[in-house]
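Exercise 3.2. Students should predict the tertiary structure of the chain below and write it as structure tokens, then compare their answer with the key that follows.

Predict this chain's 3D structure.
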Amino acid sequence: MSGSKTAIDYREIDKILESYEYKKSYLIAMLQRVQEIYKYLPEDAMTYIGEKIDDLSPATVYGVATFYAQFSLEPKGKYEIKVCDGTACHVRGSMPVLNAIRNKLDLVEGKMTSDDGLFSLETVSCLGACGLAPVVVINDKVYPQMTSDAISIVIDTLLSEERGN
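Answer key:
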């Protein structure tokens, strides 16, 4: 789990639990809402949910959160970059694109979020856009037929927008 502590707004968590009537059958939906707020699932929030819902435990909440790939136990950046490494994308050069992103954002293997917290990077098995390979998705925007140079320009553009240039 994440070593850094995130301040949890327990009133906000209570609102989420209340909206689902504190029913454990809605655990996944509750976790999705918490992740929307924090961009990941903080340990303290999962523990709190496990303690507040009858017939649930923090261990069960953690088990669900780690079972489903949609959940992250580490903070994600403002820009979530997903690089497809399915067969079509891999054959058409997704690895050089991935390496270009890592170099640009100073991310080494195992480090998924940039130091400034702006970018997080992950590889995915398939984005369902094989005809556009290699594909990168940034916050649900699809970037088709990416190259190392092209992704560098995309990231520079996002950085420029962040700086207000």
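Discussion points: The radius of gyration is 18 Å. Strands lie at 79-84, 119-124, 136-138, 141-143.
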